[in-house]
Design goal:
The chain is α+β, with helices and mostly antiparallel strands and about 400 residues long. The N and C termini lie far apart (about 80 Å). It has two domains: about 230 residues, no CATH class; about 130 residues, no CATH class. It has a six-stranded antiparallel sheet with strand order 3-4-6-9-10-11, with no helix packed on it. A three-stranded antiparallel sheet has the order 1-2-8, with no helix packed on it. α5 packs across α7. The protein contains seven helices and 18 strands. Helix content is about 15%, strand content about 25%.
């Protein structure tokens, strides 16, 4: 191409880029091996551009088959890893992520249809519904609350909570957490107060310390059984495990990885829905290694022992949390089960899970209620002992 034509083309391109964000290179992700940056922007994982929250280069979004319930908040989850590194596949535990990995989770709410942000009102919609449009969130349609980072440093994982400002232009580090007063608005116009709690750094360990011996923070969500599903990426729909492997973020994916169902999918078997819900909401604590190991109640996906799952099991120590009920699960009778009593409460001294919510997940409680009511057998109490009376199979 003659020099004068080449220069002319460059001038046209430069002129067309004036004032257009699309012509500016996206900021690069910056991994901090130490310290606690004051703003989320310093990490370079997300950016605000053209009224939207966007992902920067190399940041990959993902979702879970069944999301953990957090006062009906929706979540934009992402993962970023240093160039040339990848996570190692593990069949049951969270993937083994390399040092330098940054996991982010942005909590947000859709706004009630046809309304602008009034400082309090947000829509109460199924948390599994995404508001992503081409891997971006339109800030005129959602309210950003917080973005939590889980950063893998040489000494282990570190949790950092960042809270978004009123203008949705910046998120700042809040090590001591924050209380955000919201009002959940249902499709029928019904309103419910929600005191959304941004956890402090110590409270993060309440869920992320999944090994009671090591007492180290670990990721919860990015496990094969949660991520084995399709996702609508900007480049098209693809299975998440296959996508992570294709972009070099995951190695060792087998031909048939495990998969849990969406607990809110009414077409899936009730047993599978209930176990998926309990696994993601309770199993990281109630397991053979979790902080609630001494309770004898194990609710992770791998547990099959019915007594450990709570059937005809008397609580070890629950205080007023029993509601004067005898067993964690009374087969065929959810109303007589401690499970339903604690899940259906918003009293901090009673409710389970005890962190991460201030309101009751009505739809989740209904799944567990239906599951318990569908269970065969009965519990016989004699001489102060509970006996699991189940049909012989």
């Amino acid at each position: 191409m003659p020099e004068r034509y080449r220069l002319a083309v460059l001038l046209v391109v430069a002129a067309s880029c004036l004032g257009l964000a699309a012509c500016r290179p996206a900021p690069r992700v910056h991994f901090f091996a130490e310290g606690q940056p004051k703003t989320l922007d310093e990490w370079g994982v997300l950016r605000i551009e053209d009224g939207k929250l966007r992902l920067n280069e190399g940041v990959v979004p993902y979702d879970l088959n069944t999301p953990l319930f957090s006062d009906y908040a929706h979540k934009l989850r992402t993962v970023w890893m240093p160039a040339g590194t990848s996570a190692a596949y593990q069949p049951e535990q969270s993937f083994d992520f390399p040092v330098g990995t940054i996991l982010s989770k942005t909590f947000y709410y859709p706004l009630p249809a046809g309304t602008a942000w009034d400082g309090r009102s947000v829509a109460r919609t199924p948390p599994s519904q995404s508001s992503l449009e081409g891997e971006a969130l339109d800030l005129s349609k959602v309210r950003l609350i917080e973005t939590r980072l889980l950063v893998h440093r040489a000494e282990g994982w570190v949790a950092l909570p960042y809270v978004w400002n009123e203008a949705q232009t910046e998120a700042t580090l809040k090590r001591t957490g924050e209380l955000v007063a919201l009002e959940l608005v249902g499709a029928d116009g019904a309103r419910e107060t929600a005191d959304y709690q941004v956890p402090d750094q110590n409270q993060c360990g309440g869920c992320h310390i999944t090994d009671n011996k090591s007492r180290k923070l670990l990721p919860i969500g990015p496990k094969a059984r949660h991520l084995n599903r399709d996702f609508d990426y900007a480049g098209g729909r693809e299975n998440q495990l296959a996508h992570l492997a294709r972009v070099g973020y995951l190695a060792g994916v087998p031909a048939n990885p495990p998969r849990l169902v969406d607990a809110m999918d009414a077409t899936a078997p009730l047993e599978a829905r209930a176990r998926a819900y309990l696994d993601v909401n309770c199993g990281h604590c109630h397991s053979a290694t979790g902080p609630a190991i001494t309770s004898g109640l194990w609710l992770d996906a791998g547990t099959q022992d019915r007594l450990k799952l709570g059937f005809c099991k008397q609580p070890i120590a629950a205080g007023k949390g029993t509601g004067n009920r005898l067993h964690d699960i009374e087969p065929g009778n959810a109303a007589a089960s401690i499970f339903e009593f604690r899940m259906d409460s918003d009293d901090p001294a009673i409710m389970m899970p005890e962190l991460g919510r201030s309101v009751v997940h009505r739809e989740g409680v209904q799944v567990i209620r239906d599951w318990i009511n569908a269970q065969p057998g009965s519990c016989e109490v004699a001489a102060g002992k509970s006996v699991n009376m189940l049909p012989v199979r």
